[in-house]
Amino acid sequence: MRKRLEFTCLQMTPMKRSQCGHSEVTREECLRMSCCYDNTMNGVPFCFHHLIGRCSVKIADREPCGYDGIPVDACRDLDCCY
Hints:
This protein has 82 residues and is mainly alpha-helical. It has helices at 2-10, 27-32, 72-77; strands at 36-37, 47-48.
């Protein structure tokens, strides 16, 4: 699911980024929170929620990830959509 998450990050308009985590979060911390990381632009959050703060994968493109009854945090730790 990491590739899908990275794809939604690339589609994010920089000015519409919503901060994820504290202002000095590291790349590793950011990705652990299932957020996007891009520090190539000044003046916009570099750790930010992906599209609408949740997964936006078309129904036809969805694939099973995790297991039945998986908790939200465990699901997101796997970079899955919940």
